[in-house]
Amino acid sequence: MVQDTQVDTPLNIFLVSSEVSPLAQTGGLGQVCGSLPPALAGLGLKVTAVMPLYRSVDRQAHGLRPTSLGLSVPLAGWRIASRVWRGDLDGCPLYLLANEDMFGRAALYGGSQGDYPDNALRFTFLCRGAVELARALGQPVDVVHVHDWQTALLPAYMATRPFDLGPLQDAASLLTIHNLAFQGRFRRDLFRVTGLPASLDTMAGAELWGDVSFLKAGLVSADALSTVSPSYAQEIQTPAGGMGLDGVLRTREKDLYGILNGADYAVWSPENDPHLPATYSAADLSGRTLCRQGLLEAFELPPAPEDTPILGFVGRLTEQKGLSLILMAAPAMLARGLRLLVLGTGAPWSEQALMDLARGHPGRVGLKLTYSEPLAHLMQGGCDIMLMPSSFEPCGLNQMYAMRYGAAPLVHATGGLKDTVTPFDPASGQGTGFVFAPYAVVPLLAALEQALGVWAQPRQWRRLMANAMAQDFSWGVSARAYAALYRRLKTRKRA
Fold first, then answer.
1. CA angle 184, 190, 192 (to 5 degrees)
2. Which fold would CATH assign to domain 12-262+476-494?
3. pLDDT grade for 26, boundaries at 50, 70 and 90
4. Torsion of CA 422, 368, 22, 185, to 10 degrees
5. Could you tell me if 368 and 375 are in contact, meaning their C-beta atoms sit under 8 angstroms apart?
6. CA distance 219 to 393
7. In Å, how far are 138, 216, 292, 482 from 175, measured between CA atoms?
8. Which pLDDT belongs to residue 111?
9. What's the rounded Cα separation, in Å, for the pair 306 and 286?
10. Is the fold of 12-262+476-494 the same as that of 287-472?
11. In the chain, where are the structural domains located?
12. Contact 143, 172 (CB under 8 A)
């Protein structure tokens, strides 16, 4: 973990991402890139953020306005025009690159038929466009901070300098890995569209199992790498967690940092959450009863006895998020009279399996096969135990939200889940949730039995809630760690 640092001398950060919340997001990547810049600005850093202007971005709602900048972006031997729009991210300038052919799509990366076939072109355009934008703005840049495969070509350009990089020429680069499973792999012949030199079209460069990987190009090129929890930084250096890139990451061990994501408590806090039927706090939990009632009504379930805990799951209905474990454990859970509520979307097989489960247990299983921000808040306010049995989890945010709302997280001991949730010990009264390992149904059910044992002791459960609600995973903590890393990179680059 990078230690805190003084930020007396302003640092100029150029942050480039394919997602920035609240304008566009598919998950944690967008949330991080929407929350981190304002948190850094609060420490005195100067942050400029860059993203695509997707069709789905509501220009009026987000106060976007066109600028006078018109970019000519080199791409595969052509010059592609891009208009530039400007917004504000809680005081930080946000620039959006507009091109209808590239970003005028219904979704960010793909649809029901899979990823868009031209994603290599689209996100090369974003990276080349970011360089052209930096040149047009002409402002000093100390560190270029990019995120995941979609922007990982930027550090490769900075390391190899195949063309004029303008203010980015002497900047340091940081690549943050939000999820190593997404590697930006394309046919090997598409390397030519990147504009990178042939020296990177090798096994030591961007080649991965016969393909070209945009993420790997960044991994071997960036001045430093970070990921979103200390444990995940260690896990991805192992064959079990490295997804084919563990060897590369082990060679970068000294340059790899794990920095936990933060939670935006201005949005996620039961004291002032507009999505709850009643607000509450650690000092006065009375409003939670109304939240619990409202949640069951929202899922069209009958009232549950006060001594029956409600289990919840919010997220993508995928293997990574532990859906198979939940499905296998559900009969035993429901046989105890518990309620299970699920909010999320997934592949047809996963949704069908949950619908079959609900039909077999009427009145006990509630499904909302969609994503609703208000309902996600109500889930945190009304559930008693939040299930997060992910097979791997780079960081995770729902466990942080759950703790702030007084819902006990039940998690698999992996990645950021392991770093943020401590097992509750009834003897000492210490701990914030329930943790299981290894990744299997029996350990999951054993952890649930532990939770139910504490639930049966109201004083112990209130102690657990108080511990959880007192945790601080605010963005200020994470931003100070990033500021320390930026300063280290700037110093190293100029040495």
1. 120
2. Rossmann fold (3.40.50)
3. confident
4. 80
5. yes
6. 20
7. 22, 11, 41, 12
8. 84
9. 13
10. yes
11. 12-262+476-494, 287-472
12. yes
For residue 406 the two structure tokens come to 């007084």
Q: What are phi and psi of 144, to 5 degrees?
A: -100, 120
Q: What pLDDT does 229 receive?
A: 97
Instruction: Put the strands of the sheet holding 207-208 in their side by side order.
Output: 185-187, 211-213, 207-208
Greatest CA separation found in the chain?
69
Q: Which residues of 21-32 are buried (b: 16+ CB within 10 A; e: fewer)?
A: bebbbeebbbbb
Q: Which residues of 275-310 are buried (b: 16+ CB within 10 A; e: fewer)?
A: bbbebbebeebebbebbbebbbebbebeebeeeebb
**Tell me, what's the pLDDT at 2?**
54
CA distance 265 to 287: 18
Q: What confidence tens digit (pLDDT) does each residue in 174-191 have?
A: 999 999 999 999 999 999
User: What is the pLDDT confidence band of residue 4, given thresholds at 50, 70 and 90?
Assistant: very low
CA distance 90 to 417: 29
- Give the Cα separation of 74 and 194 in Å (integer): 10
What would the two tokens of residue 489 be?
A: 């990179």
Spell out the residues 6+ positions from residue 250 whose beta carbon is closer than 8 angstroms to its own.
237
Band (100; pLDDT cuts 50, 70, 90): very high
| Neighbour tally for 55: CB within 10 Å | 14
Q: Under CATH, which architecture does the 287-472 domain have?
A: 3-Layer(aba) Sandwich (3.40)
Place of tokens 């080349």: 128
Report yes or no: 331 and 337 within 8 Å, Cβ to Cβ: no
Rounded to whole angstroms, the Cα distance separating 457 from 68 reads 64
The residue length of the chain stands at 495
**Sole residue written with tokens 């997060």:** 388
pTM (global) more than 0.90? yes
One-letter amino acid for residue 15 of the chain: L
**Which strand (E) or helix (H) includes residue 146?**
strand 143-147
Cβ count near 359 (within 10 Å): 9
pLDDT score for 8:
57
Q: Which helix (H) or strand (E) is 367 found in, with range?
A: strand 365-368
Closest CA to 182 of 55, 74, 316, 73: 316
